[in-house]
Amino acid sequence: MILELDCGNSFIKWRIVTESGASAGCGGVVGTDEELVLAVQQQLLDLRACRLVSVRSDEETTRLVDALKRALSIECVCAHAAVELAGVRNGYEQYERLGLDRWLALVAAYQQAQQACLVLDLGTAVTSDFVDTDGQHLGGFICPGVPLMRNQLHTHTRRTRYDDRLAAQAMQSFAPGRSTAEAVERGCSLMLQGFVHTQLDMARDYWGGRFVVFLTGGDASLVVNLLPGAQVVPDLVFIGLAIACPLR
Predict the structure, then answer these.
(1) Which of 1, 14, 121, 122 is 20–30 Å from 188 (CA)?
(2) Has 61 been labeled as part of a binding site?
(3) Are 88 and 131 in contact (CB under 8 A)?
(4) H or E stretch including 140?
(5) What residues bind ATP, as annotated (predicted)?
């Protein structure tokens, strides 16, 4: 069994797969290194190795790797930036500055599509990346996702605060909001939809209708109805991680 980790700034996504890459049915999201170790230990599985992608600092990543080695007796292989991987060429002028999670996601998308693709990752932040039919990464965009937009309004505008129950109720419609919760939740969602429409227009300018859209991230459900032909792949980063760190 192989432990796979996607280490973000706030959370760690984890899952366990077989040697062939099939899911072992174990996985989740945790907030700390300690929670991760405990969650994995509870699975009582024989782990051979770990591969991970991290956007954390080198110090934080090293601390996690050391904790896993002590607690689980496994070695970790970390994904690293590259100029080229699996037929995809990094489009950043300084290739090492492209976020590793974005890099692995677009590599995975191109490997699956084998044609031009638009990769949309809708999480705390929203990212888009364009890869042409020859595997050249053309670049992309980063903007705040719905959680960041909402939190900024809550932090800097006192009268916009409300609880999760009101937030969920607000999303039953996209009519103009008649309460603060409705106005904020629907407004943030519409901003996200506007961003997605813009990315689609740019992709059409590049490639006409000859491209594939990939959706990943926790808020993919907010825009999936706008993209009837999109491939929704929640584990896109993990697919790219297996390409970057094959563990033979």
Answers:
(1) 14
(2) no
(3) yes
(4) strand 137-144
(5) 6-13, 124
